[in-house]
Amino acid sequence: MSDSNPVTILWFRHDLRLDDNPALAAAAARGSIVPVFIWAPEEEAPWEPGAASRWWLHGSLEKLSAALAQAGAALVIRRGPSLEALRSLAAECAATHIAWNRRYEPAVVKRDTAITKALTADGLDVESFNGGLLYEPVHIATKEGKPYQVFTPFWRSLLARSEPDEPVRAPRTLLAGKPVKKTQKTVAAAELDLVPTIPWDTTMQKTWSPGEAAATKRLETFLAKRLAGYGTERDRPDHDGTSTLSAHLHFGEISPRRVWHAVRAAAGGRPAAQITGDAEVFLRELGWREFAHHLLYHFPHTTDAPLRSDYARFPWVSDPVGLRAWQRGRTGYPMVDAGMRQLWGSGWMHNRVRMIVSSFLVKDLRVSWLEGARWFWDTLVDADLAANTLGWQWAAGCGADAAPYFRIFNPTTQGEKFDPDGGYIRTWVPELTRLSTADIHAPAEADERSLEKAGVTLGHDYPEPIVDHGEARKLALEALKKVSQSS
Fold first, then answer.
1. Are 361 and 372 in contact (CB under 8 A)?
2. CA 485 and chain centroid, separation
3. 7 φ, ψ to 5°?
4. Cβ distance 229 to 241 under 8 Å?
5. What is the C-alpha to C-alpha distance for residues 371 and 176, in angstroms, rounded to an integer?
6. CA separation for the pair 201, 214 (Å, rounded)
7. Which tens digits make up the pLDDT trace of 313-360?
8. Residue 13 vs residues 75, 101, 108, 180, 371: alpha-carbon distances, Å
9. What does the alpha-carbon distance between residue 268 and residue 285 come to, in Å, rounded to a whole number?
């Protein structure tokens, strides 16, 4: 290749899209590109992608490959190690540049730093871009130049900045670089064995459509049908009131900038700081996503240890039976069980219910938040290390902006408040379908006649509660008080 047409290897990671892809835009403007995805999960240990994430990735890679082919470039898929794969590909296509969009997980940051150093030493021009966040984690700081640990001041600081850059449209055509020789095998997405061979796969296919086109359609549907009323509807798991964009955002099938500016446009195009109502509530959710990555970047140890070091002394309980009951949605608390079955059946759980089930695990069962984080990591299609860490440490009270130690959700009253007619429970715990609305949130408190009429035998059709919430609350408060007093 001549210097007038330099070849750039475009390394796809969590940016599986053509629209508003800064690394792609820069590479395409320079000359030819060779797009590559490298499968090297061991490089992300101890948080390598879980089963549900792998399922989603398979579908997303197939859609990305098709989109790139239509634009004129073929996606190369290689197995790791990443550095070896990039070096081989650079030699094959006589590349002069390598570009990617940054990620912020601790293991990936460490790996990418080493790869940048090695490739630069090889004489390659290495570039990285911000393609996954509104702002870089280092660009939002307190007046003292320190990272935020409370959301509200972080959010105010974010809003005080100029608006995020406008998204850039995908290039219609791409000039593809041609390999000179092949030193490594290129594989198809199917050869990565990402899809499980269990019935769960069939359920997932009926629920989700990975890929950039589906992400764009989901955003359009949300803006047209769900943005109005989002402020209240987002708390109702029995209603279809959320954006369900989380997995698309995690895999980078749509950029947060595209979502941010689309919501602003739907709200009249005003500056974000002046937007109120439902649109403001949704933009705050994007703010929470930013906050999660801000925390992960500045406090990388929190993936496996509490941000509040005093919580390292919390007397967690080893309860494999209780943990298993929680994982399988067999706790005897319908709202918890509905959430856990939704997770197992669809790879996703409503955010309000995530708070309820996590509170039950760490407060009612006093099982470590890390057990919950690991289960979510393996079963969520939107398993995001930053969000997962923030959410579980919030529930346990050991992280940034955490719930106070005395906040312990009552799973029964939470169900009555956010699933008042029991529709969500009936969907995911069908053995309770015939129970009345008055009884469905607490079958153990229903009289024998009501249970018999509904065809429910406790301990047979549906389990008795595995713990007494009132007693569990007392025990949790005692344990939490000891931690608080010793700090």
1. yes
2. 34
3. -100, 130
4. yes
5. 45
6. 18
7. 899 999 999 999 999 999 999 999 999 999 999 999 999 999 999 999
8. 12, 7, 11, 24, 27
9. 19
**Residue 460: count of CB within 10 angstroms of its CB:** 9
Report phi then psi at 349, rounded to 5: -145, 140
> What tokens does 35 get?
């797009």
**Beta strands in 40-123, from DSSP E residues, in sequence order:** 76-79, 97-101
**Cα 487 to Cα 484: distance, rounded to the nearest angstrom:** 5
| Single-letter amino acid, residue 236 | R
Tokens at 124, concatenated: 């390659």
Cβ contact 8:184 at 8 Å = no
Burial class (CB in 10 A: 0-12, 13-18, 19+), 15: buried
- Distance CA(397)–CA(359), nearest Å, equals 10
Neighbours of 464 (CB within 10 A): 11
For residue 236, what is the enclosing H or E element? none
Q: Model-level pTM?
A: 0.96
Separation between Cα atoms, residue 300 and residue 294, nearest integer Å: 10
3-state SS, residue 57 = helix
Question: What gap in Å lies between CA 314 and CA 312, rounded to an integer?
Answer: 6
User: Distance between CA 407 and CA 190 in Å, rounded?
Assistant: 46
Q: Are 115 and 89 in contact (CB under 8 A)?
A: no
439-464: pLDDT as tens digits: 999 999 999 999 999 999 999 999 99
Residues tagged active-site: 285, 288, 316, 351, 369, 392
